[in-house]
Amino acid sequence: MNRNREKKLQQMEIETSHLYLHMQNLKRNFRLPFQLNEIGFIHDHPRTSITTSGMLELCLRLGSNEEFAVDRFGKETYRCRFPHVCLKPPDLLHTISITQPRDAVYFKYAPELAESMRAAGLLTPPYCWEFTLTSEINNLLQEVRDLFGKVYEYGVVDRLDLLAIELFQRLLVMRNAQKSGEIVDVRIQRIASHLRMNFREPPDLDELLRHNGISRRNFYRCWNSVFDQSPGEYLRELKLEEAFRLLRDTNLPIWMISQRLGFGSTSYFCLLFKQRYNQTPQGFRRNFSASH
Q1: Residues with pLDDT less than 50, the chain
Q2: Distance CA 288, CA 292 (A)
Q3: Residue spans per domain, the chain
Q4: Which residues of 80-104 are buried (b: 16+ CB within 10 A; e: fewer)?
Q5: Would you say 190 and 222 are in contact if contact means Cβ atoms under 8 Å apart?
Q6: What gap in Å lies between CA 287 and CA 268, rounded to an integer?
Q7: Cα separation of the two ends of the chain
Q8: What is the pLDDT of residues 166-211, one digit of tens each?
Q9: Is 63 within 8 Å of 104 (Cβ atoms)?
Q10: Is residue 263 within 8 Å of residue 272, measured between CB atoms?
């Protein structure tokens, strides 16, 4: 027991303002491509002014009394409100001046991973951008924090590697949406995901909207800014895609597929299927069987 405690203390140092975990020598159970070197949670980062390079890091700056953070990468200067992301490539000089304490979370990688991260689309400019601290991102950060004291349990280090990449991906999606002007209401994303997972059952739209805190009027306005189809057309398309799969991969009778997917009647289902795929369900199944 004492030996385990000593090992943990070697890997994790806890101070009043900084909790960090060195991970280079921790055992992995899987050969994941982007393995972390270090994770850290900083509370009240002290005032400082510094120029660094050779560091590969994803940093989430969560809050500060400063109105803006100013970062300079090479000749490019970024000015961001909190919360925001600072992505630090190892081949650029990074200059920062901190005038007020701030809270942050960072994920460090070996600088040698820079080229493979660029090839994967994870290390491209802009290097600083503001983001919304959604419940999904907050939950991911909390899971990272919860796993700190469990790094000797099977699979935990690999899980931390995966959580970091999931955060990376979510934050980059936010950044790219901001660049293209496509700021998507997270409530619409949740509702669309719910419909995709439960398209076989008639949705209780009022309950779904109430659960996500959005009115009918705002829902349709926001939905139309994201999707070319109405919610009804979106559901119908999902059902037809599933019907296509069932006709191709199963021997279920056509009437049963229609009933299972809630089309109301077999004739109506056949009409919609022909409009979508230019052949009847029976003709599609017959042609598919003949060609395979």
Answers
A1: 1-2, 5-16
A2: 6
A3: 2-180, 186-228, 233-291
A4: bebbbbbbbbbebebebebeebbbb
A5: no
A6: 21
A7: 62
A8: 999 999 988 887 765 555 567 887 888 888 888 888 888 999 998 8
A9: no
A10: yes
CA distance 35 to 32: 7
What integer pLDDT is reported at residue 23 of this predicted model?
95
Classify domain 2-180 at the CATH class level.
Answer: mainly beta
Q: pTM, whole model, 2 decimals?
A: 0.63
Q: How far is CA 169 from CA 55, 57, 164, 173, in A?
A: 20, 14, 9, 6
pLDDT at 15: 40
Q: What is the 3-state secondary structure (H, E, C) of the chain?
A: CHHHHHHHHHHEEECCCEEEEECCCCCCCCCCCCCEEEEEEECCCCCEEEEECCCEEEEEEEEECCCCEEEEECCEEEEECCCEEEEECCCCCEEEEECCCEEEEEEEECHHHHHHHHHCCCCCCCCEEECCCCHHHHHHHHHHHHHHHHCCCCCHHHHHHHHHHHHHHHHHHHHHHHHHCCCCCHHHHHHHHHHHHCCCCCCCHHHHHHHCCCCHHHHHHHHHHHCCCCHHHHHHHHHHHHHHHHHHHCCCCHHHHHHHCCCCCHHHHHHHHHHHHCCCHHHHHHHHHHHC
Q: Which CATH class is domain 233-291?
A: mainly alpha
- How high is the pLDDT of residue 48? 78
Largest CA distance in the chain: 73
Per-residue confidence (pLDDT) for residue 201, from 0 to 100: 83
How far is the C-alpha of 102 from the C-alpha of 123, rounded, in Å? Answer: 24
Single-letter code of the amino acid located at 153: E
Residues 6+ apart with CB under 8 A from 41: 18, 19, 20, 104, 105, 145
Q: Which two tokens stand for residue 242?
A: 């599933």
